[in-house]
Amino acid sequence: MTITRINPDNLHDTPGYHHVTVVAAGRTAYLAGQCPLDASGAVVDGGFDAQVDQVAANAVAALAAVGAGPERVVRTVIYVVSDDGAVLSQVWDRFLASPLAPAFTSASTLLGVARLGFTGQLVELDVTAALG
A Pfam family for this UniProt protein (predicted)? Predict the structure, then answer.
């Protein structure tokens, strides 16, 4: 399966993601929102960095369960409980430094939100992957 990532010339430069991701028809995996929960179901302590690390680890495990790696991701949406641009950038940069980094070369959206589902949750990640 071929995944084509495109940045049209008439759109702004990006910090690593692509504006458009195209996949020929095939199997697709839609991951539930990946949360910063450890194996016991508890939200991890340690602020944004620790939560990004847990979300990335959980997403890698979920992708592996369907025989995929981060390079098969075609769309991500990152939700961050903050309206501070510096915090949003910190979260983006932490994901780019994680084992999940190749996922963020595809179409990606980063959103600041007021609240997420679990008490103390600061980050959530929505992932779509092309399986072939």
Answer: Ribonuc_L-PSP
